[in-house]
Amino acid sequence: MEDTKLVFDGTVLVIGLFAWLIYIPQIKLLVKKKRSDSLSIEIVWGALFIQSMLFIQQVLRHNWPAAIAAVVMASCVVTVLFLVYHYRRWPGGKP
């Protein structure tokens, strides 16, 4: 069981530290196109929920490096969520 926890913690840490590599192209595309038609808002909310659960789990286990990595992932998801709502409300940017 301890080995499984170590593998999971290591996976969360590695993915969290490199999450910005996954989200930066999407954020750049949203800013460039100024539209969010292609993104499902439910998927983004689901990703935020998963990131929140990962963060809570790591805090409860006092695994601070993985908790910080989860915050990095969640901040990217929050940025995407903000841009999706912003460009759905004001397509093409604010007038």
Write the layout of secondary structure elements.
Elements: H1 2-17, H2 19-33, H3 41-60, H4 64-89
Q: Please, could you describe this protein's structure?
A:
There is one protein chain. The chain is mostly helical and 95 residues long. The protein has one domain (13-89): Monooxygenase (Up-down Bundle). The protein contains 4 helices and no strands. Helix 3 runs antiparallel to helix 4 (64-89). The longest helix is centred in the C-terminal third of the chain and has 26 residues, at 64-89. It is elongated and about 55 Å long. The N and C termini lie far apart (56 Å). The model has no long low-confidence stretch (mean pLDDT 85).
Helix content: over 70%
What is the tally of beta strands? 0
Instruction: Please state roughly what percent of the residues sit in beta strands, choosing from under 5%, 5-15%, 15-25%, 25-35%, 35-45% or over 45%.
Output: under 5%
The outline comes out as elongated
Task: Estimate the mean pLDDT confidence.
Answer: 85
Count of individual helical segments = 4
CATH architecture: Up-down Bundle
* Spatial gap, N to C terminus: 56 Å
What would you report as the Rg, rounded to the nearest angstrom? 15 Å
Q: How does the helix and strand content classify structurally?
A: mainly alpha
Might you state the CATH topology name? Answer: Monooxygenase
